[in-house]
Design a protein that fits this description.
- The protein is 34% helix and 15% strand.
- A hairpin with a 5-residue loop joins β1 and β2.
């Protein structure tokens, strides 16, 4: 559906409803203190939100951060740059540019620094979770090395 359609843009038609008919989305942080970004999916929440709610994108299969402070510390970082708010990721060119068009609506980091442990990386892979932080770091390395070759 086009945004300029005479009938208007119908979000209900584009986004599947979650429990009780509400859209699945990540709760945005209420404060800008103690923010962390998930290294795998770039979602930004407070430390306490990650502990109590887990990560809305990464809670798949046997992988879960919910109620596990050790895993929250391993899978999240305070070292991130920039923020973007995604309301309808499936329709956003920014989401496609950031490899985030299949994530739940929420607040996301543009870039993260840090890596998960080898064990957690294996768990993410087994659960079928794509590590966007690692993917973006790899893409950045490719771009910077090709720029150096061109210079």
């Amino acid at each position: 559906m086009d945004y300029d359609d005479e009938e208007g843009y119908d979000l209900e038609e584009e986004v599947e409803g979650g429990e009780d008919g509400y859209w699945k989305h990540a709760n945005p942080p209420r404060k800008l203190q103690n923010l962390r970004a998930c290294i795998a999916c770039l979602l930004i929440k407070t430390y306490q939100q990650f502990v109590t709610e887990g990560c809305d994108n990464c809670e798949k299969g046997d992988f879960s951060m919910k109620d596990d402070e050790v895993k929250v510390n391993d899978c999240t970082t305070i070292a991130f740059e920039g923020m973007m708010a995604l309301t309808v990721p499936q329709k956003s060119w920014v989401a496609r540019w950031q490899f985030a068009d299949n994530l739940v609506p929420g607040i996301y980091a543009l870039k993260v620094k840090g890596e998960v442990s080898e064990e957690t990386a294996r768990e993410l892979q087994e659960a079928g979770i794509r590590n966007l932080g690692r993917l973006m770091q790899t893409e950045e390395l490719k771009i910077s090395s090709s720029a150096k070759k061109a210079a």
